[in-house]
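An instance as discussed:

___
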Amino acid sequence: MELTRGTVREWHAERGWGVLDSPATPGGCWAHYSNIDGTGFRALTVGATVDLDWSWRSRRFPH
């Protein structure tokens, strides 16, 4: 995993996921509420600056 600083592009609190942008993640990276440090209801605010650990994953779906 790699630590970087980014910005919340979008956040869907009712669904618990969003997209974060940073120079290390061109095109953005997907984030899930379960990965936010804290307890109870966890959500991010669009435009907020966040520190994130990320790793590259590639998914292939059958045609």
